[in-house]
Design brief:
This protein is an all-beta fold and 115 residues long. It has no helices and eleven strands. Strands 2, 4, 5, 6, 9, 10 and 11 form a seven-stranded mixed β-sheet that branches. A four-stranded antiparallel β-sheet has the order 1-3-8-7, with no helix packed on it. The protein is globular, with a radius of gyration of 13 Å.
Length: 115
């Protein structure tokens, strides 16, 4: 059974930092793309960042220069370093494992940024 478990969320003040982790079990992630998404209640889930199997990265414009995605294939884990956090970054953050045609989601970790 494939499981994705996010961790590292919490409450911080604006300007602070958090590091999210997404640990995958039951599947070898080395050949898969992985991504982070976030969702605020009442709104659609939005893309934050992705990292390909070869390490190529993409970011939403809203987080460029502040967030950094990384992965450790040996640990089947993806990370999201979030710096200079803003109140508008407040959301539930989800990780996604994409190995077409399969796609798996974690349960999310809450990030709350106060002004």
């Amino acid at each position: 059974q494939v499981q994705l478990v996010e961790s590292g969320g919490g409450s911080v003040e604006a300007g602070g930092s958090l590091r999210l982790s997404c640990a995958v079990s039951g599947y070898t992630t080395g050949r898969c793309a992985m991504s982070w998404h976030r969702q605020v209640p009442g709104l659609e889930r939005e893309f934050v960042s992705s990292i390909g199997s070869g390490g190529s990265t993409n970011y939403a414009d809203s987080v460029k220069g502040r967030f950094t995605v990384a992965r450790d294939n040996a640990k089947n884990t993806m990370y999201l370093q979030m710096n200079s956090l803003k109140p508008e970054d407040t959301a539930m953050y989800y990780c996604n494992l994409i190995c077409p045609p399969l796609s798996y989601w974690g349960q999310g970790t809450q990030v709350t940024v106060s002004a």
